[in-house]
Amino acid sequence: MAAPTEFGPPWHASTLPSEAPLVPLPEHELALLERAIRLGRRGWGRVHPNPMVGCVLVRDGEILAEGWHREFGGPHAEVDALERVRGCPGGATAFVSLEPCRHHGRTAACTEELARAGVARVVYGVADPHPAAGGGGDVLRAAGVRVEGPVWPEAAGRRENPVFFHAGLQPFVAIKLALSLDGKIARVPGGPTRLTGPEATVAVHQLRAGFDAVLVGARTVHADDPRLTVREGGIEPRVPPARMVVDPDGSVTGERSLFREPAGRVLVFVASGVDEAVLDRLEGAGADVHRVPRRDRRLALGPVLETAARVGIRSILCEGGGRLANSFLAERRADRLYLFYSPIALGPDAVPGFPGPFPRAIWEQWRLAFPPARLGEDVLCVYDREA
Ligand code: AOF
Ligand code: ZN
Description:
- There is one protein chain.
- The chain has helices spanning 27-40, 77-84, 110-116, 136-142, 154-160, 162-165, 198-209, 218-224, 257-260, 276-284, 301-310, 322-330; strands spanning 54-59, 62-68, 93-98, 121-126, 146-148, 172-179, 184-186, 213-217, 242-246, 266-271, 287-292, 294-295, 298-299, 315-318, 336-341, 351-352, 366-368, 373-375, 378-385.
- The chain is elongated, with a radius of gyration of 22 Å.
- The two termini are 36 Å apart.
- The longest helix has 14 residues, at 27-40.
- The protein has twelve helices and 19 strands.
- Strands 6, 8, 9, 10, 11, 14, 15, 17, 18 and 19 form a ten-stranded mixed β-sheet that branches. It has a five-stranded mixed β-sheet with strand order 2-1-3-4-5, with helices on both faces. The protein has a two-stranded antiparallel sheet with strand order 7-16.
- By secondary structure, it is α/β, with parallel strands linked by helices.
- It binds ligand AOF and zinc ion.
C-alpha cells in the first residue's frame, strides 16, 4: 500500500470547518480537532464506504498518540490511537473528528474501548448520523467520561465525508471538469485538449481512488480514449473504481483502453432499443451492459443512477464530457463539483464548460466547500450543492 500523504489529498486544503463551534473550545483544542480531521483524510481510498476519521490522544498538553481509520473493516481511529500509546492512556483526552461509535460492528465499540482505557474526556467533531453507531457521546457520558461534542453541525461532517452522510437511494454524484480561464473545456468538440498540469493530474487520480465508480460519456471515450484507472497520486484504492460509460447507441468498442486495462469492472449503459448484437459485442469485450430508457436523445440519468446503486455503487465521479456533466447539473443530480481552472484561455470558438441549457437558478445552490487549492499553475475549487 502506498504511504499516506501528510496532508491528505490536495483538494482538502488544511482548514477548520467554517461553521462556528457549537461548544466553546480554546484555540489549541480546536487545532487538535483539526489535526484529527487531517489524520482521518489519510484513509481516503481505503475506508469508504466508512467515513474518514482521525483521533489525537493528549494528556497534560502532550500528544500521547495519533490514529486514524486506515482500512475498511479495520480498527477505528480511536482504537488505532489507543494501540499506539506507549504506557497507559489513563486520564487522557481524545480528540476525535467523528462521534465515537457505540455499536459492535466489524470492530468493538469505540465507546467501550475509550472508557476501558481510562480516557477521561472526549471531544468530538460531528455526530455520527447512523442509528446503530450514533449516540456514542451519551453512552460515554453515562460511563462517567467528560464529553464535549458535537463541536460542529452536520454540515461540517457532510463536507468532510459527503458519501457517508449522503442519504437517499441514488449514488452520490461528483463532477470533475477542467476549465480554461474563459470557461471552456476543449478547443473543438470531440477533440482532446490538455488544460491542466501534472499536479492536477495527480489530484484527479487521488480523487478517483475514493469513489466507487468513475463515469464518462461515450463521446469522451471516443475523443480521449481514457483508461479511467488510478495510476498516479500514491493512493492505491482498496477496490479499484468501476468504470461506467453512458453510451446510448452502444458505439464504444472493445479496442478502447478501458477494456484492455485490467482494473475496475466496466459498466456500459445503453438505450433499451439497442441491438442484441451490440450487447453481445460489449459483453464479449468484458463489460456489464445495462439497458435504460432514453430521454430525448440521451439516456435517462435517473435509471442510470438507480441501476448503479443496485449493483453496489454509492459514489460516482463523473469526468465528462461537458454534455453529460451539464445533464447532471440541469437535472439537479450532481452533489459536488471539482472544478480545475487552468490559466489558459481557449477563445470564443471553443467548447464552453457549462452551456446548459438551464436557468441561472441552477447555480444558486452551490457553495464553495473548501478553500481553493493551488496545484502548480492550476486552481482546484470544490463546490457542494446545498440540500
Ligand atoms: C468511530 N471511529 O474511526 C469510524 C467510525 O463496520 P464497522 O464496525 O467498522 O463500523 C463502521 C461504522 O462505524 C461507520 O458506518 C460509522 O458509523 C462508524 N465509523 N466510528 O468511532 C471511526 N470510522
Ligand atoms: Zn468506532
